[in-house]
Amino acid sequence: MTDKVLDDISHRRYNPLNGSWLLVSPHRTKRPWQGQQEAPALNKLPEYDPQCYLCPGNKRAQGDSNPHYKNTFAFVNDYSAVKEEQQEYHPQKDAPGDGDDDIASLLLQAQPATGRCYVLTFSAKHDTTLADMSASEIVPVIETWTRIYASHLSPSHPLQAAAARALSEIPPNPDGEVEPAKKQQLRYMQIFENKGAAMGCSNPHPHCQIWTTSTLPEEPGKELAQMTKYHREHKGRHLLEDYVKVEMQKAERVVWQNDAFLVVCPWWAVWPFEVLVIAKRHVRALVELTGEERLQFAEAVQEVTRRYDNLFETNFPYSSGIHQAPLGCTEEEAEMSWFHMHFYPPLLRSATVRKFLVGYELMAEPQRDITPEQATARLRDCGGELYRKLLQ
């Protein structure tokens, strides 16, 4: 059990997954002010919005029309953050010993980044969210993630055989598949969702984004490095495998679990109700999930999002993302990868009171008040029927 003194004193916690520390200040929750209280919020959006550029049959910003899809629909983002084709850039390399120019080449570094960005709708219904959907309704989303990931793997990828098996099991999308980037082999695929205006989402229609890039991004890169280091230093053990064992044994931060996935408020959580969904066995990427595991992953996602909405009886904002094996990687990088999904929600005390990473967090290190153990207890109590269904 966690030392009870940590419930009352300020302390730092280590995040072995990215090698960082954060400050925890649980005594601050004893302040008299407890935040606003709001009435339960109903979803007042229409099922179909003729002005929405993601609804079936509607025109998008660039003029293309969406098909009359029934479940998921993926397309290349009309305003991609990275593109396949752009003007070439070759960093200038100065000869050693050229004085100021040599120093500048050390400090002012840049590298080109190319790729392709996709948008993927979760449902044809404009007024729904993952919290409103059943696990079986979320499965097509996971299947589409899997197909897109598999189609972007390098030809020599260690998971090619697993990808072939997954593609043989998963039915094709009747509304068409997206074509993978052809110009070059891309390095990484980041699947993520920004839900709610508080997280910068510009369209409430349920959707996520998939960015494929020629480089390995910072966060998954840190995690891969830390997992590799742990594996080398601890006789071939996997960091997240050991972490799953610890959390299941202690049971203090376990929000929910099934046979395939563990849902925890991690020991090192920065956001008040941050959640980590971890595969219990060594799954390196989406393509290694069995059909039953895809359903159990959908159950885990549904449990997290429904409990979030029930917590403050509102459409709970968050950013979530999947970390898995890179698209192009070595045998070791694939072996070190462990499939997991992060949920970073900003709400702190109510539907309108949120946490900001400012001041000390920007200048020193992340800080939180409510402990992960306290957050876990509250999320455990938020199971059951989605609150909106009880109000209708």
Strand and helix order: EEEHEHHEEHHEEEHEHEHEHH
Q: What is the radius of gyration computed over CA atoms, rounded to a whole number of angstroms? A: 22 Å
The helix tally amounts to: 10
Number of separate strands: 12
Structural class by helix and strand composition? alpha+beta
Strand order in space, largest sheet: 3-4-6-5-10-11-9-8-7
Tell me the distance between the termini: 42 Å
Poorly predicted runs: 32-36
β-strand amount:
15-25%
Reported for the largest beta sheet, the result is: 9 strands, antiparallel
Mean pLDDT: 91
Give the CA-based shape.
globular
Task: Give the fraction of residues assigned to helices.
Answer: 25-40%
Pfam family, one: GalP_UDP_transf
Family: Belongs to the galactose-1-phosphate uridylyltransferase type 1 family.
Pathway: Carbohydrate metabolism; galactose metabolism
Subunit structure: Homodimer.
Commentary on this structure:
The protein has helices spanning 100-107, 135-152, 160-169, 218-233, 239-250, 291-312, 331-336, 360-363, 372-380, 387-391, and strands spanning 11-15, 20-24, 73-76, 115-121, 188-195, 207-213, 254-257, 261-264, 275-279, 318-323, 340-344, 367-368. The chain is of the alpha+beta class. Strands 3-4-6-5-10-11-9-8-7 form a nine-stranded antiparallel beta sheet, sandwiched between helices. A three-stranded mixed beta sheet has the order 1-2-12, with no helix packed on it. Strand 7 (254-257) and strand 8 form a beta hairpin. Residues 7-217 form the Galactose-1-phosphate uridyl transferase N-terminal domain. It catalyses: alpha-D-galactose 1-phosphate + UDP-alpha-D-glucose = alpha-D-glucose 1-phosphate + UDP-alpha-D-galactose. It holds the Pfam family GalP_UDP_tr_C. Homodimer.
